[in-house]
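Database export, one record per block. Field names are fixed; values are copied verbatim from the stored entry.
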Amino acid sequence: MKIEGPAVRLSVFIGESDQWHHRPLYHEIVRRAHEAGLAGASVIRGIEGYGASSRIHTTRILSLSEDLPVVIIIVDAEERIRAFLPRLDELVTEGLVVLDPVEVIRYAGRQGEAAP
């Protein structure tokens, strides 16, 4: 798949300990994005942050948290991202979902190559 030009970045901010059927929620979001045929998804673990609870979660040794912030980032064409949003409705009960317009400079998937 190749994307260039205008696109939308979907960012889903959740906690690392958030679960879906006894599995990490971020894993289920990535699985559903893949199933929906979206261009790609990345999960990024934060080192510090807080959300609606105003409780700071951090990796600092004296206050080591087991619920660090996690963001799942997905970039694809706007219509594909918007079509995916209903699939998030049942998954994200606490968290933040953000859409940003972006411009993709270059994205080209490997064609005919096996992943390393």
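Remark 1: DSSP finds two helices and eight strands in the chain.
Remark 2: Helices lie at 25-35, 78-89.
End of record.
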